[in-house]
Each structure stands twice: as C-alpha cells, then as structure tokens.
Amino acid sequence: MEVHKAVLLLCLFRFTDVLEAYIKTDGAWIVKLPRSQYTVKTVEDCAVKCNIETSFTCRYKSFLYIEKDQDCVTLPANSKTDQILRRMSAALYEKKEYLLECVNGIGTDYRGTKSKTKSGKTCQRWEEKFPHVPNITPKTHPKADLESNFCRNPEGDKGGPWCYTTDQEKRWDPSIRWESCSIPRCSKQCSSYRGTIAVTVSGKTCQEWSSQSPHKHSNTPENYPCKGLDKNYCRNPDNERSPWCHTTDPETRWEYCSVPSCGDQPIPGEPVIPEGEECYEGDGSSYRGAMSETISGKKCQFWTSMEPHQHSKTPQNFPAADLRRNLCRNPDGDQAPWCYTTDPTVRWEYCNIERCDSKPGTQEPPTNPEPAASPSTSQETDCKVGNGATYRGPTSTTIMGVTCQAWSSMTPHPHLSFNPETHPDKGLESNQCRNPDNDVNGPWCYTTDPNKKWDYCQIPDCDGLKCGQPAVKPKRCFGRIVGGCISKAHSWPWQISLRTRGKIHFCGGTLINAHWVLTAAHCLERSESPSAYKILLGIHTERATESSKQERDVSKIIKGPAGTDIALLKLDRPALLNDKVLPACLPDKDYIVPSDTECYVTGWGETEGTGGEGFLKETGFPVIENKVCNRPSFLNGLVKEHQMCAGNIEGGTDSCEGDSGGPLVCFSQNTFVLQGVTSWGLGCAKAMKPGVYTRVSKFINWIEQSMKEN
C-alpha cells in the first residue's frame, strides 16, 4: 500500500513539475504549420509531448490543449512570434524561458528576443556572413537556439548574451565585430520573495490574497499553494518582473511593490478611471464619471491639449479637479460638468449627464393639462410604446408576412385563452397583432399557417428605433479597468451570441439589420454548413435564460474576400427589433476612425478571474492609427490597410474581454457605429500590443452587395 502511495505521489510531483515550466493563457489559439496533433488523457501528458517533440524543431516549446476533446497540439511558435486568435475552448501553454526578457546567471539559457547590443548596435543574423563571417552559427551550435538576430550566449561567455553586430566599419576588427547585449538580470528573489512588505509603489495597502474584496481574482492560496500567498504580503505568483499585489483601493486593481532587491520598478500606470457615474450631485464638482461627450454629441478635448482651444484649465492648475483624459468635469464651480470640445467652432459645452435628483415624474403637473387622446386617435397610430401592451394599431401580419388568425377563431389553431371572452380589454376583436400576455418581445398573433401556431409582429417603436441608439444607456466603462465592467442589461442590443447546435457559446457577432449578422471568418472554421450554428439575440447572460431571448438558425454563410477576417450570417427569419434587440449602425465607406476615438468591445469572453463570469462585459479604449500600430515596438508591420487597432498602450484591457467576431463600436454624434470586428492580437492585454480588428468601413460595398444578392 505504501509503495502505491509513493508511486502516486511521484507521478503527482512529476506532472506538477512539468506544468511549472509553462505559462497558461485561456481562450488563446495559434494557427501555425508545421504542427503535431495528439489525443491525450491530461494536460500534463500534452506538456510531456511538447517537451519530447521530434517531428519538427519545437523551438518555442508551446502547446494548445482542448480539454473537452482531449486534443493536444504542439507548435514551433508562441505569442511573441505569431498572431493569437480567440478560441474559448482552448488553452495556450508557453514555455516560460522563451517569454522572459531577462537573464539568469550568465544567460546561457536566455531565449528572449532582444536584438541590440549595449551600445545600441543592431545584431547580425546568426546564419548570415555579412558584414562579419561568424565562427558560431546555427550549424556549429544547434542546441543554442541561434535564431534570427537575437542575443544569445552559446559558449558561456562571462559577459552574458551577445551577438555579431551590423557595424560594417568594424568588420575587420576581431575585438569589436561583436558586442555584449544589455539584458537585465532575472532576480530570483522576485519570484521567491517571502518578505512582509504589504504596500505598493504608490503607497496603497495590499488586499489579502484570500479576500475577494474589493477585487475578485484567481490568485488565491488554494490555487497557488506553493507561492507563499500569506496575508496581504507582496508576492509574485505569476512570474511578473517583480512582486506585486491587489490593492485595497477599489479603483486600482493591482500595482507593483517596492522591493529594492528586485531591481528597477516600473512607473505606476495612470490611475483607473471609474466605471462611470450615471449622474452628478449639486453642481457636479464632485463628478468623477467617464462621460466625454457634450450635450450636443460633440467629443471633449483633452484637458492637457491646447488644440483646437487654448485654455488654462489644466491638471497642473487644478490638481484637485481630476482633469484626466477628456472626461467631463467642473473644475471652476460652474452649473454642471462641462468640457472644451474638439469642434473648432464651439469652444465649450455642458456635458450629456443628468442630475441625480432629476428623477422622472417629479415635475409639477401643468395647470391646464392637455386633453387625453381619444380612442380613435390612438388606434390610428401604428407604432408601439415599450413592449406594446397598449398597442391597438392595424397591423395584422407576422414578422414573416403571414396573415394573422382572428383571435376569436379556432382555425387553424385552437386556443382556450387569448380570445375576446377571456381578455375583453386587450383589443382582441379582430385579427390585429396584440400583446395580451405582456410579452417582453412585443405584439404577436396566432397565424393562418397550419405549421406555425404563433409568431411576433414587427411593430415600429413610437419613439423611433434607430440603429446604434440603445434604449438603455451603456455604462461606457472606459480606461485601464482590468477585465472590463459588467454591462447594464441590454445596453449593447446589437451583441449576439454565436453558438454550436448544442447551444455552446464560442464567438460573438453584431446585428446589422433584422436579417444579417456580421462576425469574424475565423469563427466559422469548424464547419462550412449553416446548420452547424445558432444565433441568440436579446440576452445579457451566457446562460440565456432571459424571456427577451430570440433564437435563430443560420440560413446562409458568406465569407469575406480571401485573406480577410470577416463574414456575414443570414438569419433563417428576421430578428424582432425592440428595445433589447437593435442593429448597430454601419460606417461610411472607407471611413478612417481618428486616433484616440472612444471605442468599446463587448462579449462574454475570458475574465481572467476578475469576476463577472457569465454576464456580458464591456471595456473601452482609444483607437491607435495604423502607422503607429505598425511600429517595431508595437505590432511591427502586421496590421493591414483593411484592419485597425485599438487598446491601451499600457496593457490591462483589450478584446480578451470580448469575443472573436464581436463588435468594436465607436461613439459619435450620440450614436454607436460598428467600426471593427474583433479579430486577433499578440498576447492578451499586453502593454504595447493592442488588439487588431477588421476595419468594417473597407467592406461596405461587399456587405451591401452580399445582402442584396442573397
């Protein structure tokens, strides 16, 4: 018995050890050839397969694992070298040593991507012979990973990693034709630190690791039993560059700690912007919400900017007024929050925010109220208010154009309820669409089609349903809020859930009219058949238990031009448009979204343990122009003309919180416009690696033509 226990423990330690060398990213996928695919029993078995891979050089030692299918895919790539796509059922495991940009000891095991010497010279590729003929090459040192022009230490030089330089003037000088690289040391104390410091670099007190307040997280003692997560002491459970902690400040999720022996500390990031206050008290001097638009829909000018309007209301002159970014504020005690506008002809305006005490229905009734409309007048109005419970209009056909059965008739569909006798005050005198049961989706009727008992009717809203203008105002959760915010229910009514026939959510999409949904082409890799997919609309939770849910099959799939990540899905029957299901607006053809435009992604994507699992989440960030995004320090030329990128330069949020295929909508003139389709990114919410989106404006002709022909 004891022998069996020992063997079991030995296996447990072996499997635990094999995964310790990897960093896991949920919901990530790499499309890379060559690759090897195996069926395994556990993720540990997959790690072993990767470690002993022989069919190709598993240079970056990474693998994908799909637990549901027990599929294991080994790859010669990682998040530094290839595009990361979103796939909810998969997990990417990357060997830590290939992700580190620091050295242990003299750096013989360094596998990072630094390619400049300490004096700033660019490294020569190891396989090339100009300007220097190398003594050390990939052939002479096959196990040293002499790839590209990355700094390496193949022979254990005491000076650490080095490279041949591209300095042609020194090509004949043996002592200068190569140079050491300046790569920081990986301090072991950073990961093994067990001290009692419990304060961050900015002086904030650390939250206890076992606590989920004020910040929910997965870095608990139970999940990391060997990482010393005691009390609220600074620790490094996930191999960050130095110890850190979640803070007790609700507005700052985490910060690094000042542990001197771990080397230089990064500068603390910009403070987190609150989720957004819905109203302001008094004159709004204390308002700290995220609104950045005026009452007429104009975008606010940044407080630090002097274009187009010069002013003295700067963060330096008003340090207590919280003049961050271009957020509405009241630094000078005006009547309400305001801002300078980006319109050169309008210097400033009050912002589009209501007073907290301006509740509906508090006004005094007029002395001489208007006479109520007569029944005959209201009956002539062919529009509905709310869910249409009071609708008495003339429409008598369903959303599919089928004539309604008379409510008093029992042919072709007999019914014991919902007739003039059982509901005498519901307007069931003829065959007009009505809502006798207060259905959240609006008026309906029994149909004259023997195969379809009942269906909804498409009745326009009396207020006028307009694309991109939701009935419920979104929070507009903007800024470095890790994991985003849980959205208000139905505040992004164009968001759809793309599901398998078994109704498992795996991608997002955007309703662009009652018949069509726009999504990413890579979401449709599993099958070319429309019958493989279902679409859910009008939901807020991933469980989709809402009474407002609409379920549709897909009748047609149209993928975009070759090399693009966009696709159209035609619904088998039109969506019923209401206050919970509404299309987003399409942009003008070839429109280029200006840099710093306020945009948002939504979805039921990975939450990384930040809470809100199962609820629709949102996060906002600015657009980054392509020429900036394509700089070597960002995405290094990977962003094409038909794509766009957006995100926070510092990292912290991106479309990891959304879903592949989901919307990137940008706010302009009181309307949300669909500017992007969530496509890919390098890593997940990493600094200097914004998310990449298909630029919808480049496909307007294709969208319109495809819908017209189909």
TrEMBL record:
<keyword id="KW-1015">Disulfide bond</keyword>
<feature type="disulfide bond">
    <location>
        <begin position="206"/>
        <end position="245"/>
    </location>
</feature>
<feature type="domain" description="Kringle">
    <location>
        <begin position="382"/>
        <end position="462"/>
    </location>
</feature>
<dbReference type="Pfam" id="PF00051">
    <property type="entry name" value="Kringle"/>
</dbReference>
<feature type="domain" description="Kringle">
    <location>
        <begin position="101"/>
        <end position="186"/>
    </location>
</feature>
<feature type="region of interest" description="Disordered">
    <location>
        <begin position="358"/>
        <end position="390"/>
    </location>
</feature>
<feature type="signal peptide">
    <location>
        <begin position="1"/>
        <end position="21"/>
    </location>
</feature>
<keyword id="KW-0645">Protease</keyword>
<dbReference type="Pfam" id="PF00024">
    <property type="entry name" value="PAN_1"/>
</dbReference>
<dbReference type="InterPro" id="IPR000001">
    <property type="entry name" value="Kringle"/>
</dbReference>
<dbReference type="InterPro" id="IPR003609">
    <property type="entry name" value="Pan_app"/>
</dbReference>
<dbReference type="GO" id="GO:0005615">
    <property type="term" value="C:extracellular space"/>
</dbReference>
<dbReference type="InterPro" id="IPR013806">
    <property type="entry name" value="Kringle-like"/>
</dbReference>
<dbReference type="InterPro" id="IPR018056">
    <property type="entry name" value="Kringle_CS"/>
</dbReference>
<keyword id="KW-0677">Repeat</keyword>
<feature type="domain" description="Kringle">
    <location>
        <begin position="278"/>
        <end position="356"/>
    </location>
</feature>
<protein>
    <submittedName>
        <fullName>Plasminogen</fullName>
    </submittedName>
</protein>
<dbReference type="InterPro" id="IPR043504">
    <property type="entry name" value="Peptidase_S1_PA_chymotrypsin"/>
</dbReference>
<dbReference type="GO" id="GO:0005102">
    <property type="term" value="F:signaling receptor binding"/>
</dbReference>
<dbReference type="InterPro" id="IPR033116">
    <property type="entry name" value="TRYPSIN_SER"/>
</dbReference>
<feature type="disulfide bond">
    <location>
        <begin position="300"/>
        <end position="339"/>
    </location>
</feature>
<feature type="region of interest" description="Disordered">
    <location>
        <begin position="415"/>
        <end position="435"/>
    </location>
</feature>
<feature type="domain" description="Kringle">
    <location>
        <begin position="192"/>
        <end position="262"/>
    </location>
</feature>
<keyword id="KW-0720">Serine protease</keyword>
<dbReference type="InterPro" id="IPR024174">
    <property type="entry name" value="HGF/MST1"/>
</dbReference>
<dbReference type="InterPro" id="IPR001314">
    <property type="entry name" value="Peptidase_S1A"/>
</dbReference>
<keyword id="KW-0356">Hemostasis</keyword>
<feature type="disulfide bond">
    <location>
        <begin position="328"/>
        <end position="351"/>
    </location>
</feature>
<dbReference type="InterPro" id="IPR050759">
    <property type="entry name" value="Serine_protease_kringle"/>
</dbReference>
<keyword id="KW-0378">Hydrolase</keyword>
<keyword id="KW-0721">Serine protease homolog</keyword>
<feature type="disulfide bond">
    <location>
        <begin position="234"/>
        <end position="257"/>
    </location>
</feature>
<dbReference type="GO" id="GO:0004252">
    <property type="term" value="F:serine-type endopeptidase activity"/>
</dbReference>
<feature type="domain" description="Peptidase S1">
    <location>
        <begin position="481"/>
        <end position="708"/>
    </location>
</feature>
<dbReference type="GO" id="GO:0007596">
    <property type="term" value="P:blood coagulation"/>
</dbReference>
<dbReference type="GO" id="GO:0006508">
    <property type="term" value="P:proteolysis"/>
</dbReference>
<dbReference type="InterPro" id="IPR009003">
    <property type="entry name" value="Peptidase_S1_PA"/>
</dbReference>
<dbReference type="InterPro" id="IPR038178">
    <property type="entry name" value="Kringle_sf"/>
</dbReference>
<keyword id="KW-0420">Kringle</keyword>
<keyword id="KW-0732">Signal</keyword>
<keyword id="KW-0094">Blood coagulation</keyword>
<dbReference type="InterPro" id="IPR018114">
    <property type="entry name" value="TRYPSIN_HIS"/>
</dbReference>
